[in-house]
């Protein structure tokens, strides 16, 4: 099992593999159209569970998948994200993705998750670049990505999103 499959701790977060018992916590905000206005909105608990399980199934094959994001202080589930190759659209390559409960917005948690994800991508996987996609109107995500070293590559019409890339600064 890859180091990415295990739990990871940052200063304020615990990043853990998804388990079925996490689904209801995640569904609480993943079904909220306002909270998820820039990404997939789960139409039902079963759809949410199925989608989360499809991402988690890639962990065995790839050695990584998005994590459940918990606060280190009290273990509260506040989000989901990390490194991913989308099981439905793998042609976009290695991406960092994330979604957070609105109560955790603006507190730097997304930045902390993205930094941890890039550290693992460049350090543990040895990849040279990671992609991210955000709708043009999602300025908060664009700020997070740019703060973490991503640069805007342009608009991707097939996804109706801006395409960002973070490149490793390590010598090849």
From TrEMBL:
It comes from the Bacteria. Keywords: Transferase. GO terms for molecular function: acyltransferase activity, transferring groups other than amino-acyl groups. Residues 13-171 form the N-acetyltransferase domain. InterPro entries: Acyl_CoA_acyltransferase, GNAT_dom, N-acetyltransferase. PROSITE patterns: GNAT (PS51186). Coiled coil: none annotated. This is N-acetyltransferase. It comes from Rubrivivax rivuli.
